[in-house]
Amino acid sequence: MTKNWLFLIVAMLTFSACEDDYEVFGPLNDELNTEEQTTDVVTLNLPDELFNYANPDLPFFFNAPPIQGQLNTPANNPVTDEGATLGRVLFYDKNMSANNTVSCASCHQQEHGFSDPLAFSIGFEGEFTGRNSMGLAQAAYYANGRFFWDERAATLEAQTLMPIQDHIEMGMELDELEEKLSTLAYYPELFEQTFGDAQITSDRISRALSQFVRSMVSYTTKFDEGMAELVPGQNPGITPFSNYSELENLGKELFFSARTNCATCHGTTNFVAPGPRNNGLDLVFEDNGLGDVSGAPQQNGLFKVNSLRNIAMTAPYMHDGRFATLEEVIEHYNSGVQAHPNLSATLRVGGAGGPNNVVPRVLNLNNEEKLALKLFLETLTDEPMLNDEKFSDPFGE
Ligand code: HEC
Ligand code: HEC
How many CB atoms lie within 10 A of CB 101? Predict the structure, then answer.
């Protein structure tokens, strides 16, 4: 397969810069194992002046504790405009998969909050992934810096190379990938612009992808507009926002209240936990999340709590996509939490000091309160982000 590839790649790769785009004529065909040599024309639309990824105009509350303490950006891989631009091209490039059918964006779609509307995503050979795709907003803001539902990746830099090599997702070997990318006309310049020379290594691929993913910061939701009115130190949980409807304010108050405890796990203005939790989905899990990785029974049923920003766009929900709607999610917390032995304290009657036998909390929300919670969650949708060209597909036909 590698041989065929290298042979076909000899196809002419011309490069012509024209104001905003440059066109690349290259073999993005997916019939690599046949004699047929189709050569598609690929247009890569990149701006003359790089988009700003490195220094977004974040509101004041992002630059203060506890948000600052959530950042997992390593000192040796800060987001740069050049690196994130390369990361964007890699993220949308189907050449990243063994048969050129799947890119990162196939399963992380911008209009769906960089998630997938399918409960299980379809990999390069038509097989389904074992879990629901995850939304990528606020990936930079998870304090323990771990990735995936079961947190098996210790860093984002480690994570970004894993789907590429996954046998269901993209099916590539890293050395094969390096060789393949170096035959595509548009990469040398992009690597050089980022790293100072055109050498293509998997380490650089991982860094650039991580920069692009970390640049996906949501800060222009209706919630952020409301936050902007507050005096620093004022508690958004109990201060009504003037841009919210009465029900949205009720939902916000409920979300941050001790009655629901939602914010004990989906906390701060990034709506994340500092680490994994068990939210009582099952009494006996088929997929034990962290427990399956560590083998420790006390971690069974613990899963990553990633940000709820854009949550209305990332259905279906949970690690296995079991809930199709936010209503179902809310009903789970209202009346469906299971008495798993590892159920997190804030979903138990009596909390951490409660009885030894686990008794799940029942919220007794009325219909108006359930609706209010849903409407509040919908205010976390970041339309400007989901339509921002800097996160969009740079490839055209
Ligand atoms: C075939 C579908 C598919 C493809 C292709 C894919 N992903 Fe994913 N992605 C998923 C699924 C499913 C998960 C959750 C998997 C798990 O937890 O075991 C996930 C999880 C992630 C996460 C973890 C988010 C978090 O908060 O922990 C990141 C980051 C991510 N993917 C980035 C990428 C990048 C970058 C690429 C391309 C190199 C990519 N993905 C390709 C389906 C896909
Ligand atoms: C004890 C911690 C905890 C509390 C309290 C909690 N959650 Fe969660 N939440 C989680 C965990 C863990 C997950 C992911 C579980 C999984 O996928 O297996 C999750 C997932 C979700 C999801 C789906 C996320 C996705 O990307 O699919 C939504 C929506 C959600 N919670 C909303 C709420 C709301 C609303 C409340 C309050 C009524 C709440 N949560 C209370 C821990 C908690």
Answer: 16
Point out the ligand nearest to the CA of residue 304: 2
Q: How far is CA 24 from the centre of its chain?
A: 29
| Residue 255 burial class via C-beta count within 10 angstroms: exposed 0-12, middle 13-18, buried 19 and up | buried
Q: What percent of the chain has pLDDT over 70?
A: 89
Pocket of ligand 1 (CB under 6 A): 91, 96, 102, 104, 106-108, 121, 123, 129, 131, 133-134, 136, 139, 147-150, 159-160, 163-164, 169-170, 209, 213, 304, 306
Both structure tokens of 312: 């209305």
Q: Give dist(CA 83, CA 183) in Å, integer.
A: 20
Cα 33 to chain centroid, rounded: 33
Whose C-alpha lies nearest to ligand 2, atom 30?
329
Interior CA angle at 301 toward 298 and 306, to 5°? Answer: 115
Residue nearest atom 13 in ligand 2 by C-alpha distance: 305
Question: How far is it, in rounded angstroms, from Cα 341 to Cα 308?
Answer: 25
User: pLDDT digits over 237-280, tens only?
Assistant: 999 999 999 999 999 999 999 999 999 999 999 999 999 999 99
Which residue, 180, 170, 176, is CA-closest to 126?
A: 170
Is the Cβ–Cβ distance between 81 and 50 less than 8 Å?
yes
Chain center to CA of 112: 10
Alpha carbon of 339 to those of 99, 210, 260, 281: distances in Å?
Answer: 45, 37, 17, 9
Q: Whose CA is nearest to atom 34 of ligand 2?
A: 262
